[in-house]
Every structure is written in structure tokens, then in C-alpha cells.
Write a structure and sequence with these properties.
Shape: globular
Radius of gyration: 22 Å
Number of strands: 20
Structural class: alpha+beta
Order of helices and strands: EEHEEEEEHEEHHHEEEHEEEEHEEEE
Distance between the termini: 19 Å
Strand content: 25-35%
Helix content: 10-25%
């Protein structure tokens, strides 16, 4: 797997453009696919067509569907200035970000400070984690360390930076290119990108992380496909709408027992949640809530003599800001 941005078209040595749909048709017809190059004229580095395929993962009921894309060949890198250069895009995003959120480190790396994002999303500091505010008192100043909770324009900047980085991550083939440039920190803790950004195949890992952390988890980002919307009845005392996502199902070592991991968004604005249609892909980030696993028992669909046990795990996001959900590619 490469570490660049997934592309939708490429060119051959003569400069002819090949949209991914044409490559998909050629692949299905067992027709020859030419050697491909990056479509940006200033680049023209070798790329490859990766057909749509499914990956079987351990203990998964359903295989993971991987859509077709065009990516760099192994060991190749885009030319400097190429519009598909993920490193360049990261640099552009962080250069426009607030330095109190994305701080400079040695050797050109940056750190993304998830604690200030957490404090801004929750409206209160996380107990036991203090952050020195810009220009504020620090160790040795004779004053106690203060906790910094961003608001207003600063929080807007943090949300915009996070959205831009997550949109870029979703376009990339893996965490590698962002992890090489951006270190995630939550107070004094360093957070792996694999513990921050989760696709559907990782919902179980996200739930386990939240369960282990209790109420002290860092913000998480989840990618999902919208499954349905559900709004409370007109006469309900509390108005709310759920945006429900397609669940992850996991096998267990116990016969006729299946675990499910359900992801939902809860918000009062039904029109806003409805603007993300069923079947579309979204990225959600923020402070997630989880519920302890619950068991239900149902007869098997095609065999009344069998009872299936379902162990359900729920993850819910209650966004305070609409920037916390964005459409994915």
C-alpha cells in the first residue's frame, strides 16, 4: 500500500487521460491497462490502478469493501508542487492553522494538540490535564499552570484545521503520510493515528478505547456510511433526530453469538442531519459516548430451532458544532 492521495484519473505515456471508470470497465473486460502516470503535468510519476476488491478480516461477518482508486507505485513520490502531493497539502493546512493548536517541532514536524480541541468541544477542561495558555503562566513563573479552553475564533480555527486534515486523511491510502508529519498529543500523551481515525472496520477498536478510557478519552474521528435517519414524534417532549450508520458485525468464539458495533449521531436539527443522504459517506469527529454491551436473543431467520445471541455495543456522537460532520469523498 502506498502513502499518497487516492486519485480518480491518470494518463499514459502519450498524455491520454484515463478516468477511473474507464479503467474499471477495462479491468472487468480483462482488457490491457497501460502503464499509468500521475495526471498532474508537473509530476507524471508512475501510478497504479487498484480495482475494487474485498478484504476478509479476522472475526468479521462481512468482508471490507475497498473501492477502486489510483495510487502511487511502491516507493514512488509525487513531484514537488503536484496537486496530489499529500505532504504539500498538509503543509498548506498547518501553515494556515493556529500555532496554539498545531505547534512546530524539530525537523519540520508538528504536533496536533487534541486536548485543546477536547476542551473546546466540551466547553470545559478535562480533569487532571492542564495546558498552559498562549502567553500564560507556566512552570517556574511563580504562578500555577492554568487550563486553556478555546472559544470563538480560536475554536473555529481548530475545527476547520481538524476538518481539513481528516478530509485529507480519508483521501490517503493509509495513516503513514500524516503520521510522518503530524504527531497527535493529548496532554502529555502521544496518540497513534490508528487510535484517532477509524473506518468501519475499526469500530470495535474505537468502542474498546472509549470503554477503557471511561470519561477521559481523547476526541475520535470515525468514517461511516449513512444507513438511516430517525426523528422523534411531533408530540415528543424532547425533539431529537438520529443519523444511524452501517454497523460492524464481529464473530465470536461462542456458537450462534454475534457482536455488533452501532454508530449514531444525535442532534436536534433534523434538516441538517438529513442533508447527509442514505448511502453517502461521512466523517465525524468529537467527544464520543459509549454504552456498555447489551444482549438480545432472536430466532435464526431460517431455522426456528436456533436462537442467535446479539451483543450490541453503541457509540454516539452529540455534536455541538456542525463542523464536526463532513461529507467524505
Amino acid at each position: 500500500m502506498g502513502n499518497g492521495i487516492k486519485m480518480r484519473s491518470a494518463v499514459d505515456a502519450t498524455g491520454r487521460l484515463y478516468p477511473i471508470e474507464e479503467l474499471h470497465t477495462a479491468h472487468d473486460a480483462n482488457a490491457a491497462i497501460p502503464n499509468l502516470l500521475c495526471a498532474d503535468p508537473i509530476c507524471r510519476k508512475p501510478v497504479r490502478y487498484v480495482p475494487r476488491h474485498q478484504q476478509n478480516r479476522k472475526n468479521r461477518i462481512e468482508p471490507v469493501d475497498v473501492p477502486a482508486y489510483i495510487g502511487l507505485t511502491s516507493g514512488s513520490m509525487h513531484a514537488d508542487g503536484c496537486k496530489f502531493d499529500a505532504v504539500k497539502r498538509i503543509a498548506l493546512i498547518v501553515d494556515e492553522s493556529d500555532p496554539d493548536f498545531v505547534g512546530a517541532l524539530d525537523e519540520g514536524k508538528r504536533d496536533l494538540r487534541l486536548l485543546v480541541l477536547h476542551n473546546g468541544l466540551s466547553g470545559k477542561p478535562l480533569s487532571g490535564n492542564a495546558l498552559v495558555p498562549p502567553g500564560g503562566a507556566g512552570a517556574g513563573s511563580g504562578m500555577g499552570t492554568k487550563t486553556f479552553t478555546p472559544s470563538g475564533k480560536k475554536l473555529d480555527s481548530y475545527l476547520r484545521t481538524t476538518s481539513d486534515l481528516l478530509a485529507l486523511r480519508e483521501l490517503c491510502e493509509s495513516d503513514a503520510v500524516l503520521a510522518a508529519q503530524l504527531i497527535l498529543r493529548f496532554g502529555t500523551k502521544r496518540i497513534a493515528w490508528s487510535n484517532f481515525f477509524f473506518t468501519k472496520d475499526g469500530y470495535d477498536e474505537a468502542w474498546e478505547l472509549l470503554h477503557k478510557a471511561g470519561g477521559n478519552a481523547h476526541p475520535l474521528a470515525l468514517v461511516a456510511e449513512v444507513k438511516s435517519h430517525f426523528s422523534s414524534k411531533p408530540d415528543a417532549k424532547y425533539k431529537s433526530t438520529f443519523l444511524n450508520c452501517r454497523s460492524l458485525y464481529r464473530k465470536t468464539d461462542i456458537a450462534d453469538t454475534i457482536e455488533s458495533f452501532e454508530v449514531s449521531v444525535l442532534h436536534a436539527d433534523a434538516a441538517w442531519l438529513g442533508s447527509f443522504p442514505v448511502g453517502s459517506n461521512i466523517i465525524m469527529f468529537g467527544i464520543w459516548e459509549y454504552k456498555a454491551a447489551t444482549e438480545t436473543h432472536r430466532k435464526a431467520a431460517n431455522d426456528d430451532t436456533r436462537t442467535i445471541t446479539y451483543i450490541t455495543h453503541k457509540l454516539t456522537l452529540k455534536p455541538r458544532f456542525k463542523q464536526q460532520i463532513l461529507a467524505a469523498s
